[in-house]
Design a protein that fits this description.
By secondary structure, the protein is of the alpha+beta class. Helix content is 28%, strand content 41%. It has a twelve-stranded antiparallel sheet. Helix 2 packs antiparallel against helix 3 and helix 4 runs parallel beside helix 5.
Length: 308
Amino acid sequence: LSASHVCMDPHADLYSVLGVAEEASEDELKRAFRRLSLAYHPDRWQAPQDKREAGERFLHVARAYGVLSDERKRMAYDELGPRDFEQGQQLLTAEVDSAAKLRARFEREKRRVAEQAYHGKLRMSGSLVVGASASDLLAPADPDLPLGERLWPHISSVSMSEDMALALSQRTALTCGCQLLTKGGLGGCTLRLGFKRQLGHHAFLHASASGLNGSPISAGLSASRRLSRHSNGAVSASLSSRGLTDVCLRASRQLTKHTLGEAVWLVGSGGDDGSFCLRLSRTGSRPPSASRLDLGEISARSRRGLTV
């Protein structure tokens, strides 16, 4: 067995496996297959190691003959070679009756796969968030105020964002995003550029820089980790000319398939600017949509009730 010419490489030339020339006739292929199949049939060997090796070689010989004895498979093998044969074999339909047609279809499929791989590296997402406050209706300054005289929910903010991530490798990506925001009669635009790195199976690090309407550029750093099957934790902070600002601790848990619960603690830029918020987010898939319910926010300056 050690002196056998049968190559065990799965990408080895099938003509070499049978020991015949590329222009071998059907009869020559049959004679080579019979000779080698008899020589390497496992039943002819007694020692366990020899029987195992002979069985592997027997399978290689049978595969080589199975391909070269079939006219259409041999055409595909001769045209595409051992490395692309398996992919080309899947393209052998009734319309593909020549090597030229097979080559043309193979090249089209190759370009399609390359385009899919390229688009798979570029991920884009966008969102539209409309915020409405119901705190004046549910928790007015005067608790005895009749319901009919209370202020009804009103739109407090509108935000539109578009994000793009370009994968550089399996663990790293460049990110770019733009956000338009209007709140309280004022508006602004933010441009974000960042770099994302996967530290492990369940941990990520994201560094970014952003600018708002000509203001000085600020840098952000965030780290997230999966804590359990349904829970995640994250910490983020921003650095600007004022120093370290907007330190945020976030814990989230997937409550149902479409419902996410979050607890957010925002430290802010000063010791008395912190706030804590409990939040429920609901997503839908038909059509893609999301809604958020803030159960309450407690801060050093104010307390707000239910916000949608």
